[in-house]
Amino acid sequence: MTGEARRTDKDGISVVVPTLNDRDGLDELLHALGAQTRAPDEVVVVGGGSTDGTSKLLEAWRAGSRVPVQRYVPPAYDSGIRVANDVFVAQVGRR
């Protein structure tokens, strides 16, 4: 969807999440996002070449979750921000 205009829904929220071999942390984060009163409209996961089953986890979330995991894009926040569809974009990272 790169290059398409962002939605203009003033309440739209995209969450951009970078990950690298943090399947369990990502699962925990997705559960936390789903537990929010206002779940995001999409979650864009920015992949870093994980080898720990992260992609299988994301497939499971896409299959039927309240948290809409839309894409798994190449590394870098910029990639995630470019494909986010909503007006408000939150970047989530772990230190």
Structural notes for this entry:
There is one protein chain. By secondary structure, this protein is α/β, with parallel strands linked by helices. Helix content is 29%, strand content 23%. It has three helices and four strands; from the N terminus they run E-H-E-H-E-H-E. Strands 3-2-1-4 form a four-stranded parallel beta sheet, sandwiched between helices. The longest helix has 12 residues, at 23-34. It starts with 12 loop residues before the first strand and ends with a strand.
CATH class: Alpha Beta
Low-confidence stretches: 1-5
Radius of gyration: 12 Å
Name the overall outline. Answer: globular
Share in β-strands: 15-25%
Q: For the record, give the distance between the C-alpha atoms at the N and C termini, rounded to a whole number.
A: 29 Å
From N to C, what is the helix and strand string? EHEHEHE
- What's the story with the biggest beta sheet? 4 strands, parallel
If classified by CATH, what would the architecture be? Alpha-Beta Complex
List keywords for this structure.
Spore Coat Polysaccharide Biosynthesis Protein SpsA, Chain A; 3 helices; 4 strands; 29% helix; globular; disordered N terminus
Briefly say what this structure is:
With 95 residues, the protein is α/β, with parallel strands linked by helices.
Write the layout of secondary structure elements.
Layout: E1 13-19, H1 23-34, E2 42-47, H2 54-62, E3 69-73, H3 77-83, E4 88-91
Parallel strand pairs: 1-2, 1-4, 2-3
